[in-house]
Design goal:
Layout: H1 11-31, H2 46-53, E1 62-64, E2 67-69, H3 74-110, H4 126-132, E3 141-143, E4 146-148, H5 152-167
Antiparallel strand pairs: 1-2, 3-4
C-alpha cells in the first residue's frame, strides 16, 4: 500500500490553509519581509509555526537587526514544499476515497447494509469516513425491522465521493 500522510483536519480545510500560506509567502516575497523570524523582534513567526506543526522543512529568510539568515530563494523553497504537501494530501485522499468506493461496490454486490452494521445495527466505518470529509451519506439498511434508504444509496454514495475528489 502507498504511504499516506495523516491529516487530523478535513483534507479540504488543510489544502485551503496551505494555499493561504502560499499566498501570504508570495506577499512577503514581494515586500522582501522576513520569514521564519519576525523582523521586529526575531520571535518565531506564523510561517515557522505552520511548517513546524506539520513537520515540514522550513527555509528562513531574515535581514533584520543585524541578523542575516538564509537567502531570498527561501520564499520559493517554502512555496514548493507547501505545493508538494498539498499534492500528498490529494494523493492520500485519492487512495482513501478509491478504497471506500471499492468497499461500497463490494457491499453493493452482496446487498449488505451501509451506514449501520446489518447484524448489530451499530454505526459502521462509512459514517465517520463521510463525516470527516463533509460528504453527505445515504443509508441502505434492511435488517432487524429497520428499513433505511434504497439500493440506490450505493451509487449515490460513490457519486458523492467522486464529486468530493473532483472538488479537492
Amino acid at each position: 500500500m502507498a504511504h499516506s500522510i495523516a491529516v487530523n483536519v478535513p483534507a479540504r480545510q488543510e489544502i485551503e490553509a496551505a494555499n493561504g500560506v502560499v499566498k501570504q509567502l508570495k506577499e512577503y516575497q514581494s515586500k522582501n519581509w522576513a520569514i521564519g523570524l519576525n523582523g521586529d523582534n526575531l520571535a518565531p513567526d506564523n510561517f515557522l509555526a505552520f511548517f513546524t506543526e506539520r513537520q515540514l522543512p522550513f527555509a528562513y529568510y531574515v535581514r533584520a537587526q543585524g541578523v542575516s539568515v538564509g537567502e531570498p530563494s527561501a520564499y520559493q523553497i517554502n512555496i514548493d514544499t507547501l505545493n508538494h504537501y498539498v499534492a500528498l494530501i490529494r494523493s492520500s485522499e485519492g487512495i482513501a476515497v478509491h478504497g471506500a468506493i471499492t468497499q461500497l461496490n463490494h457491499y453493493k454486490a452482496n446487498n449488505w447494509a451501509i451506514g449501520l452494521n446489518g447484524s448489530t445495527l451499530q454505526p459502521d466505518d462509512f459514517l465517520p469516513f463521510f463525516d470527516t470529509r463533509g460528504v453527505a451519506f445515504a443509508y441502505y439498511v434492511r435488517s432487524g425491522g429497520v428499513e433505511l434508504g434504497t439500493p440506490a444509496a450505493y451509487d449515490n454514495n460513490i457519486r458523492a465521493l467522486q464529486q468530493y475528489l473532483d472538488n479537492l
